[in-house]
Amino acid sequence: MTYPQPRRVGDVEALKALTHPLRVSLVNHLLSVGPRTASECAEEVGSSASNCSWHLRQLAKFGFVERVEGTDGRERPWRATAVGFDFGGFDEDPAVRTQQDALAALQLNEENRLVQRFLDRQHEVPREWLEASAFHGYSLTVTAEELTGLVGIIDDLLRPYITPVRENAPEGAAPVHLAVRAFPR
Predict the structure, then answer these.
(1) pLDDT value of residue 75
(2) Using CA atoms, how far apart are residues 123 and 18, in angstroms rounded to an integer?
């Protein structure tokens, strides 16, 4: 089965629009849990509903999120427009590269925020989820070609489970954050 791939974003203006800590958190939240209202997003990202609403509208201008029909007809939720976003890296254009670097730093901050929140709330996490959680790091000896292949294999393995793609998840399934970083030491 073929799964949708992340939307490639290389436009400097679109990258600039996303290069904001709250916007990174909002997009990541919508990708992990599906459509949510600005109020629901605010709870998760630690901001006000009006601030989230404003930032969601800014993200919508560049096609990162869009409104969807709600269930009660009052407030319409927002959703991410793709199953993920690929912002590239190491572009030769200095303007694009600056935004990619800033976005990478924000993504790392977001991952650190999620890890810290997990650690702070681990006493609330059921034992089965604590035992399933992991913090692994590996040092590999590979060629650039082998590393590209390994990252592709990992992506192919994970793609059926990403929230925007997975249908009919079994009972007990929950959003989980899994990050993979690969770079020469």
Answers:
(1) 79
(2) 33
Of 32, 31, 29, give the one whose Cα is nearest residue 40.
Answer: 29
Q: Is residue 104 part of a domain?
A: yes
Give the structural domain span for 18: 7-133
Q: What digits encode the pLDDT tens for the residues 91-133?
A: 999 999 999 999 999 999 999 999 999 999 999 999 999 999 9
Please determine, for residue 72, whether its predicted confidence score (pLDDT) is greater than 80.
Answer: no
Would residue 17 count as lying in a domain?
Answer: yes
CB 115 within 8 A of CB 137: no
Neighbour tally for 116: CB within 10 Å: 10
CA nearest neighbour of 29 among 181, 177, 178: 177
CA distances from 87 to 96, 139, 184 (A): 10, 25, 19
